[in-house]
Structures are given as C-alpha cells and as structure tokens.
Specification:
single chain; eight-stranded mixed sheet; five-stranded mixed sheet; 16 helices; 16 strands; elongated; disordered N terminus; RNA-binding
Length: 424
RNA sequence: GUGGAUGUAGCUCAAUUGGCGGAGCACUGGGUUGUGGCCCCAGAGGUCGAGGGUUCAAGUCCCUUCAUCCACCCCA
C-alpha cells in the first residue's frame, strides 16, 4: 500500500485553544469557581457521552437541538448515544441516578465543560463549545430565581465584560401556559398567510417561538396577538414580581420582555438571557431559566429547579475586548558564559523554579548579547549573569532590567533578594 | 440547512492586460573583549488552502473541494 501524505486538520467547528489564549480561560474558570463556591455551589464532572434518549425526553423532540443538531452514534451493541448538547438534562440525570435528592434537600451544582451541537460554524458559534453550567435544584420559590440571577450577574460583572443586558420573561406554568398556547394557536391560524414559512411551521408545533421571529411580516402579523404577560396566572405573576423586586434591591438592571422565548422545551416560568452588542449575531453570553417539571419528566422526584449556562467562548471574546490581561509575576532570566557557568546556571534555575519563581535560561550556547535579547523578549524583570568571574567570586551579577542597574550578589543572598524576606 | 465574501511567509497584507512570488511586523545571526530595548546589515522562512482543467505560460481564468468569516437560522 502506498503511503499517502494527508494534511491533518481539526474537524470543522472544533477548535484548538492555544497557550496565547489560555490565560483568559484560566481566569474565567478560576474567577467563576471562586464566586460559585462562595455562593455554596459544588462542582461535578460528567461524561461527554450520554444516551440520546435523555435529551430527546429532556429538551424535547421538536426542538432544533434534538431534531437536527445532535451528534448521534451507535455503540457496538447498537445503543443510540450522543455527545451532550447541553448540560441541564445531564445534570438532572446524574442527580436522579445518584439519589442526590435523598442526600440533601437542595442541591447547588455547577459543571464546566464542552458541549456539542452540529450547527453551521460562525464566530461565537462552534460545534464544540464550552459552558459554565449552574443549577439550583429543589426549590420552587422566587428567592432561588433571584439567587441564580444575582450570582450570574456577579460573575459576569466581576470579570468585566462591558455592557450587558439582562432580559427576563415568564413563560407561565403548567396551569396558565396551555391556555395561552391554545389562544395563540387560534390567533395564528387566521394570520397564517402573513407568516414566513418557518413561522407557518412553528405556529402549530411550537407557537411561542413565533414571537422570536425577526421577519418584518411576522412582527406585523403579531399585531394584536395574545400576550403571554396577560395570560399569567396569579401565582406566576406573584413569582415574577417577587424576583424583579429582589433584583431591583440588588441593583441589577433588567428588561422585562414578553417576547423572550427559549429553544428548550423544559423551561417553565422564569426565562432569561444576557446579551451583548459587541459580538454580532451570536450575542447571547448566558441564558437559562426555571424547569420545575424536568426532573419528574425524567423519572425523578418532584423537584422544581432553576439554572443558567454561560457560553465560555463568547465570554472570553468579551474579556479580550474589555480588559488587558493582568501582568504575570516577576520573571528571571539567567545568562551564562562558558560550559561550567551553564551547568551552574542550570542548577540555580532549577533551585529558583523550586521556589516557584518563573525562571528561564538559553537552551543552546549563544553570545551574551543574544542572551540579553532573549531576556528582553521573555520580559524578564531580572537577569542573572554568570561567567568565570562570578564563579570565582561565588557571586552572580544581578541586573534589574527596567533601570539597567547591576549589582554583585552573593549566591547565599540571592534567593532573599529575588523572593523577599517573608518567604520561608 | 440557505445566501454571500475571503483563502499568498508565523501575523497583517501587496503582486499591472495571465509573463522570474514581495513588503512590514515577528524570527535567527552579526554590527570585534561580558550586556537587552532604538538603529544598521545579513539570513532563514512559500506544495500561492487542496484537486483538476484552459494556456507556450496560472497566485491571477474555469470547475470541484476544504476551511474561515458575515447574514439567515439557532443558541451559549
């Protein structure tokens, strides 16, 4: 067989995250973890592979995610598996399977990891993308909604992502939503001619989504349509009112928008989205809502819940636009002249690294000039110069790069000089 | 899934009617004894996204394909 030279590439919509970018990822993750832990949420990690039926049941067969965006596989025994397209259904599966409901009355969980959807790639939309997913399981009251929303806002604001808009709506509950849905269907039946093809299809299967349509003709046709905010039952109205009051008291700005709908069927009552103007069409940085029926739908106990997901790629785009990275800690470069000095420099470098001081030296043999250039490129704060003279005297030359000042330092004093006296 | 734009050095981009593939930045070395940034000199770096076709001749024209980007759609 003839060897074929193939150019290997990553799969469409799947991306490498390189060292130049990784500082943003680390900062997003570590800051989010800190805030989440402070608010009592605990991390869990779950497989990327699940039974496909979980999402069909959880998210809904009619949704775009399930009907056309799932990565489906058959395993060797013919079971239908998929790469997880979202986290909530999966967390709920783990919650039920591991009987978390018996361990504690309320579970506050978060998961950070990749999700997979087979969509047309675009900036801010990838086939493998990452989410920080947060769920508060087991409480029905508006305080949970407020806790979740305030937490989300604190994470996004604390990271500094520029102007963000929080939009909230209530989708109603199992009592009032069915009424609204049938009213709306009836209304849309008369307007059918005026709707775009997509909406004609939606008007029967998923009529709420017509409110999302940006087509001018559809917007016009919705003139005089039943409004979801007029169909809320008393409980839904009170619930939303309580949340909005708590948000106002917390100083969190929001927009109440009765056209906000969500693409996953499990949402009840509270639905929300955080958008930016800085990212073009893929403008939702985070989204979520309440899912009071999902756990029982998936075979678990009756546990009303609420959660959200932050899109990490989109969040990072905003971090890049809005904030320069913090400078790293001090760095040291060791320049050496001659073989003996190089061996000495190596041992010294490893000693400094053992004390967690970022230290580098030249790998090959090169002139001092060249080594100084390397030190500049590396952005070293200090350069240690070691040649025969220093070896003889038992010292190193310590150069402070900003000022250019140079002093001879005894080896025994060096660590103290670089790290400071407080370090043991 | 639909429509459109773009693929040339690591990055940002040039290349006339089809006629020897370039610049800036970055990289490597040097500018005489052991000193960086600025400056100067030199070097290295390209299957011109991939495959086919037209032509004496293709980065340039045609077809196919892959990828990226934008909008729709969808969502985080």
């Amino acid at each position: 067989m003839v060897e074929e030279t193939v150019e290997f590439r990553s799969v469409r919509g799947f991306h490498d995250i390189l060292p130049e970018e990784i500082a943003y990822w680390q900062r997003l993750e570590s800051f989010s973890r800190r805030i989440l832990e402070a608010h009592g949420f605990k991390e869990l990690r779950l497989p990327v592979l699940e039974m496909a039926s979980l999402f069909k049941r959880g998210i809904g067969e009619e949704t775009d995610i399930v009907s056309k965006e799932m990565y489906l596989f058959s395993d060797p025994k013919g079971r239908e598996l998929c790469l997880r397209p979202e986290a909530t259904s999966q967390i709920v599966r783990a919650y039920i399977q591991n009987r978390m409901d018996l361990k504690e009355p309320i579970s506050k969980l978060y998961l950070i990891g990749p999700m997979f959807r087979h969509e047309r790639p675009q900036k801010g939309r990838y086939r493998q993308f990452h989410q920080i997913d947060v769920e508060l399981i087991g409480d029905r009251g508006p305080i949970s909604d407020a806790e979740i929303l305030i937490l989300l806002w604190r994470i996004l604001q604390g990271l500094g992502m520029g102007d963000l808009v929080l939009t909230i709506n209530s989708l109603g509950c199992e009592v009032c939503r069915p009424h609204f849905k049938s009213h709306l269907k009836e209304f849309l039946r008369d307007k059918r001619e005026g709707l775009c093809p997509d909406c004609q299809r939606r008007s029967e299967k998923n009529p709420l989504r017509v409110f999302d349509c940006k087509e001018a003709q559809c917007k016009a046709s919705l003139e005089g349509a039943p409004r979801i905010d007029e169909s809320w039952c008393g409980d839904c109205t009170d619930h939303l009112r309580a949340i909005l009051d708590l948000l106002s008291e917390a100083g969190i700005p929001y927009i109440l928008d009765s056209r906000l709908m969500r693409g996953l069927d499990y949402y009840t009552r509270t639905a929300f989205e955080v958008k930016t103007k800085a990212l073009g069409a893929q403008d939702a940085v985070a989204g979520g809502g309440r899912y009071d029926r999902l756990i029982s739908t998936l075979g678990g106990p009756d546990r009303p819940s609420i959660g959200f997901a932050i899109g990490m790629e989109r969040a990072i785009e905003l971090l890049k636009l809005n904030e320069a990275l913090r400078p790293e800690g001090p760095k040291v470069f060791i320049a050496s002249l001659g073989f003996r000095a190089r061996l000495f420099a190596f041992k010294l470098m490893m000693e400094l690294r053992a004390r967690e001081l970022k230290t580098e030296m030249a790998y090959g043999e090169s002139s001092l000039k060249s080594q100084m250039r390397q030190a500049t490129r590396y952005r070293a704060e200090y350069v240690l110069i070691i040649g025969d003279e220093e070896l003889e005297a038992g010292t190193v030359t310590l150069k402070e790069m900003n000022s250019g000042e140079q002093t001879q330092v005894k080896i025994s004093d060096l660590i103290r000089r670089l790290i400071g006296p407080k370090t043991p």
